[in-house]
Amino acid sequence: MPDKSSTQLDETLSLPAPWRLHFGDSLVPARIAFRLVGPKDGPVVAVLGGISAHRVVADSAGAGWWPQIVGPGLGVDTRHYRVLGLDYIGGRGQSSTPDGTGGFPPISAYDQAAALNHIVHHLGLKSLHAIVGASYGGMVALCFAERYADLIGRIVVLSAADKSQVLSTAWRSVQRQIVREALARGDGAGGLKLARALAMATYRSEVEFALRFGGAPVREGDRFRFPIENYLFARGDEYVQTYRAESFLALSESIDLHQVDATLVHTPATLIAVREDQLVPFTDMQALSARLNGPRQLIEINSIFGHDAFLKEGAALIPIIKHALAEQNT
């Protein structure tokens, strides 16, 4: 059993210059910020989320992005495991990110995996016990398992496949164009609000929307307002308080550039698919499972929350993740 005395390390690393990126560009200066927290001698589990996630996965102040899954007695049990979170390159936080003046290079999930590899070596770890990755984080987990197989014991991948689905790329392409045109007008926040509202319509399921927002529209002067509008635009307003348009462009594009060779992944994998997920259909995760070359298990859950199930379905996901991590803990 690990030493139960909990420690916390927050650090921002300068990456070797020039930092070569997957698509051939260089990032100068390049830095990656991370947080490692948990029992001093515990196995390290990297926990990675969607493009809005950051290095604070869960904490006692409620600032973390995944408190439903990560914490004492939960799926990633912080009494036993050390949790490693990072600020994505291009995203929010202290890692390298667009400065608003343009010129930020295309970012791949492989670049996030390379930065994670640098953190592992910096910390002097023999390997990661596991990566638990949801959405974009699942893409990074697959990239890491392909490139750094000797540094990872297991991956748990939620709602992510080995490549983006074309219809999902279509939706995100429209979102990005909304943001680009808004930035050109000097209103990046306004464009990001609209893009986020549109994105929310793809994250959730038609069943949830019908249950919550199926009421009659209300007339306001010479137009009608539908119940769903208030919800979508409120989510957009919230998003622009914590995220920047330029970061959204960088990481939204990174999702659609994602493609790994799943046949090169031999790491034991637990795949969790959501039947109602519009962005990563169950059939895409079935195809991923068929292409993987290591031990794997594909688990299907149902959720009216669609792609956002990883943020909402703690009761269903906790035992799955707990079991997946324990398999490498014997």
Q: Describe it for me?
A:
With 330 residues, this protein is an alpha/beta fold. It has 10 helices and 14 strands.
SSE inventory with pairings:
Layout: E1 6-14, E2 19-20, E3 26-27, E4 31-39, E5 44-48, E6 70-71, E7 76-77, E8 82-87, H1 109-122, E9 130-134, H2 136-147, E10 155-158, H3 166-184, H4 188-203, H5 206-213, E11 218-220, E12 223-225, H6 227-239, H7 245-257, E13 269-274, H8 282-291, E14 296-301, H9 309-312, H10 314-326
Parallel strand pairs: 5-8, 5-9, 6-7, 9-10, 10-13, 13-14
Antiparallel strand pairs: 1-4, 2-3, 4-8, 11-12
Helix pairs in contact: 1-2, 3-4, 3-7, 4-6
Write a concise synopsis of the structure shown.
With 330 residues, the chain is α/β, with parallel strands linked by helices.
Widest beta sheet: strand line-up: 1-4-8-5-9-10-13-14
Tally of alpha and pi helices: 10
Report the radius of gyration as a whole number of Å.
20 Å
- Give me the count of strands: 14
Low-confidence stretches: none
The CATH fourth-level homologous superfamily of the largest domain: Alpha/Beta hydrolase fold, catalytic domain
Overall body shape = globular
Helix content: 25-40%
Strand content: 15-25%
> Number of folding domains?
2
Written as H for each helix and E for each strand, in order along the chain, the element string is EEEEEEEEHEHEHHHEEHHEHEHH
User: What do the pLDDT scores average to?
Assistant: 94
Secondary-structure class: alpha/beta
CATH class of the largest domain: Alpha Beta
CATH topology of the largest domain: Rossmann fold
So, CATH architecture of the largest domain? 3-Layer(aba) Sandwich
Ends apart, CA distance between termini? 11 Å
| Biggest sheet record | 8 strands, mixed
